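Page 47, continued from p. 46.
Same chain as before, 149 aa.
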Amino acid sequence: MEISINKKPFSISSNSRILYRIIQILLSMHYTGIRTEKSLPLIKIHLLVWLLQSKERQEKFFKSMDSNYELSIGIWSIDKDTNIALSYMFEDDLCNIKNKNYSLTEKGKKFISKIVDDKEIFISEKDFLSKVKNKLPGTAVEKLQRLWI
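Result:
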């Protein structure tokens, strides 16, 4: 299977492309998901995808992480593109929903493993998510959310 994202004649942000968003979510699940199912709650998926949008957000996140999540990272919310991507992922059997968490299926694990193994694509996303790993528990997500509610 070969994946390619080609430049179109008119400018469309890569973040708006559904395949790009699906891969961001799959990478988030692969690197930060819990247990063998690589499961994540919806709000954490939205946070990770939001963080992947810019280096500045990631820097703020790491500063907040260093302060035990006492520093605000800004206002983040539910994004419709992420929800659409999750719907496609569910319909294409890349993920399923268990106990209010999204989990990778075997098909999803197989698909994302090819991207993880490729050293030339999604380099910055893989680097960021590998640094986050299990350092963003649900309690930290709730703390970050409460800082702007």
